[in-house]
Q: What sequence folds into this?
């Protein structure tokens, strides 16, 4: 039988962002174990598929800065976790679902804190959901693509963060009730800054810091027919807001894609509550609107769904005490004074945390599991290089709307996957 020289993968899933585009065509040189051609992926997706030979790859496991093998590194990691009284397990949004599950079991077994990057990005959104003041109007991306004729990006710029979002799920694709694609849809952008979206938007409403809640509250009053005594800041263009709200009310089906420009701003609690109220008012007025948070990392939704299924909470779980979930006390930035070891999986907190909080990681043994060198790997006591999920290892990931998809193993690799590393650690913890 002739040796296979080339392999074509017709529907690979891109492991870059939470869009998880599943129409990627990849040609693989089997003998050279190399990707020859990539079609349909965005520019960042192409970089992710080709990152296997990145100069920043970690080549071998390290213990206290010295290269070693996986077995020795696993033994050292187990030793650290066994002696720790309150370890932190953090990151996981760039890991497949099975690795996330094993990491959760490690946290339970060691009585540690388990948190994911979502607690920093979207924590206030979940707080609003959990207080239950307003219903959460939600839909799968396929439903939005088929039905929506008014598309709003509020505090989000998918051209930069999710390059194929507009072409696959919102503005440009043909839908059941948008047979002409972009010709049957209106794009509205609400943001603090001029972005690339301004050039293609039918409406662009530029806000100043702190105005998101004001505008949402004003729109809610207009939707409810309350026009009496409208008192608005002179710098807000009331006429434009009235016309824009009228367009929102006349939509057949609308969606507000909510970005970190709203969710992580200084006034985020007020902004989120006001936008929830607006969506509720629009639905009660007779039109269909959904609110959709723009997720970032490729399996952040899987991490959230795992925790909701297993514990009923979305992030920030402390298994060392009865109080399992308490935002502001059990989330990562709040526990760094209390934990005495850390397992960081596919994240770079030394770069992303506030400087004073990041320094606290240097005062404890840190176990890092990551394909690439980062500032966090430089402070690691134990470092594991991993295969890249969706390129060198298969796995399961959840699209930003909660749809599970299988990621293929495209290239062979000598690296262990994060799932295999975590399983190795967990087995030895349980047996010892």
A:
């Amino acid at each position: 039988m002739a040796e296979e020289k080339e392999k074509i993968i017709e529907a690979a899933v891109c492991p870059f962002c939470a869009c998880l585009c599943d129409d990627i065509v990849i040609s693989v040189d089997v003998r050279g174990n190399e990707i020859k051609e990539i079609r349909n992926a965005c520019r960042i997706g192409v970089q992710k598929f080709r990152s296997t030979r990145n100069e920043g790859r970690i080549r071998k496991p390290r213990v206290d800065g010295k290269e070693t093998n996986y077995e020795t590194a696993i033994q050292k990691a187990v030793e650290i976790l066994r002696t720790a009284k309150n370890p932190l397990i953090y990151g996981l949004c760039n890991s497949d679902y099975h690795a996330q599950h094993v990491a959760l079991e490690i946290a339970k077994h060691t009585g540690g804190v388990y948190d994911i990057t979502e607690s920093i990005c979207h924590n206030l959104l979940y707080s609003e959901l959990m207080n239950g003041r307003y219903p959460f109007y939600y839909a799968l991306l396929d439903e939005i693509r088929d039905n929506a004729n008014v598309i709003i990006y509020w505090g989000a710029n998918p051209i930069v963060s999710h390059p194929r979002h507009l072409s696959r799920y919102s503005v440009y694709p043909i839908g059941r009730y948008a047979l002409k694609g972009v010709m049957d849809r209106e794009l509205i952008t609400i943001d603090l800054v001029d972005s690339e979206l301004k050039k293609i938007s039918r409406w662009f409403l530029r806000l100043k810091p702190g105005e998101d809640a004001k505008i949402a509250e004003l729109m809610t009053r207009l939707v409810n027919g309350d026009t009496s005594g409208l008192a608005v800041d002179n710098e807000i263009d009331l006429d434009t807001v009235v016309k824009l709200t009228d367009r929102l009310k006349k939509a057949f089906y609308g969606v507000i894609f909510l970005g970190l420009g709203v969710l992580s701003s200084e006034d985020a609690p007020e902004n989120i509550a006001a936008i929830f109220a607006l969506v509720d008012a629009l639905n009660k007025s007779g039109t269909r609107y959904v609110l959709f948070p723009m997720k970032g990392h490729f399996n952040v939704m899987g991490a959230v769904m795992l925790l909701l299924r297993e514990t009923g909470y979305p992030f920030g779980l402390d298994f060392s005490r009865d109080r399992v979930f308490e935002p502001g006390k059990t989330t990562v930035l709040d526990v760094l004074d209390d934990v005495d070891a850390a397992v960081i999986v596919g994240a770079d907190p030394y770069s992303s945390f506030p400087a004073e909080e990041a320094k606290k990681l240097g005062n404890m043994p840190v176990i890092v599991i990551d394909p690439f060198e980062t500032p966090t790997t430089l402070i690691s006591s134990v470092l594991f290089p991993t295969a890249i999920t969706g390129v060198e290892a298969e796995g399961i990931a959840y699209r930003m709307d909660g749809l599970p998809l299988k990621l293929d193993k495209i290239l062979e690799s000598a690296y262990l996957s994060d799932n295999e590393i975590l399983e190795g650690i967990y087995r030895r913890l349980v047996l010892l």
